Amino acid sequence: MILIDGKKTAEQIKIEIAQEVKKMNDAGIKVPHLAAILVGDDPASQTYVNSKSKSCHEVGFMSSTYRLPENTSERELLEMVEFINNDPEVDGLIVQLPLPAHIDNQKVINTIVPHKDVDGFHPVNVGRMTIGLPAYIPATPFGVLELLRRNSISTTGKHCVVLGRSNIVGKPMSLLMSRNSEPGNATVTLCHSKTHNLKEITKQADILIVAIGQPGFVGADMVKEGAVVIDVGIHRVATDKNPSGFRLVGDVQFDEVAKKASYITPVPGGVGPMTIASLLLNTLKSAKKEIYN
């Protein structure tokens, strides 16, 4: 079993980005600028946005964070999005999800201009990705592709089972693994919690990508010997063994599944660090106008 070290890979990507940004700076070219809007006080969202800001600083990006109270109206948030849309200094914009219940997530996503949508959630970017045009790929699936590529894990002709059908991970992941590229060229089965005979299907997977959002959902009895297992899930579960009172686990029962897998991502330290690294890559592409001229 080989452990896929997402933390190490993400650090390498940051080094590469920082070198690119230094070249831009030396040439007198404006460095990339990523803006984030955070509504409310959700602890997980705050942690992510703070990590994003720290990572921007590490690679030499400009970074702006707009923190709005929980009771911000939908109209006020949309006005803030439009303000950043029209700011020529900003290359990428993310609105941290989830938003408070009184705000329509999709309406906010639709308001971000596609060339600043570095999360890759806008229907224009989703559509472009689907038909194989250049697009911003959602950060987590993008990170999984980079892990496969940088660990020289061949996907061509393999049976890839994606477990989970969210718009953020599962659906785009299934499309990306089936496209004519490497990583890609896989035969893909997209499963979810309502799939019949789920265990029989996951046991056929050469590559199993798990993003079902349930801690420890996949056990060793669901995995084929020698499979590549990518665990996208991350959850806090209570424990009396850590001073914090909790530990982080994924959607996969790591200790048992690792005995059967040829490659596996840990939680934490697997897919998680790659999400921010991928967001930085998308922002660099935006600054260099590689997707939209």
What are the main properties of this structure?
alpha/beta; Rossmann fold; 10 helices; 6-stranded parallel sheet; 293 residues; 3-stranded parallel sheet
Can you give a write-up of this model?
The N and C termini lie far apart (44 Å). The chain has helices at residues 6-26, 43-59, 74-85, 105-111, 123-130, 139-150, 170-178, 198-202, 254-257, 272-287, and strands spanning 2-3, 33-39, 62-68, 92-95, 159-163, 187-191, 207-210, 228-231, 235-238, 246-249, 263-264. The chain has two domains: 29-113, 3-Layer(aba) Sandwich (Rossmann fold); 139-273, NAD(P)-binding Rossmann-like Domain (Rossmann fold, 3-Layer(aba) Sandwich). The protein contains ten helices and eleven strands. The radius of gyration is 19 Å and the shape is globular. Helix content is 38%, strand content 16%. Helix 1 packs parallel to helix 10 (272-287). The model has no long low-confidence stretch (mean pLDDT 95). The protein has 293 residues and is an alpha/beta fold. It has a six-stranded parallel sheet. A three-stranded parallel sheet has the order 3-2-4, with helices on both faces. It has a two-stranded antiparallel ribbon with strand order 9-10.
Can you describe this structure in just a few lines?
This protein has 293 residues and is an alpha/beta fold.
Q: In angstroms, what separates the terminal alpha carbons?
A: 44 Å
**Portion in helices:** 25-40%
Major sheet description = 6 strands, parallel
**CATH fold topology of the largest domain:** Rossmann fold
Number of domains: 2
- The neighbouring-strand order within the major sheet is 1-11-8-7-5-6
Average pLDDT: 95
| Helix count, DSSP H or I runs of 4 or more residues | 10
How big is the Rg? Answer: 19 Å
Tell me the quaternary state: single chain
Our estimate of the beta-strand percent is: 15-25%
Give the CATH superfamily of the largest domain: NAD(P)-binding Rossmann-like Domain
Order of helices and strands: EHEHEHEHHHEHEHEEEEHEH
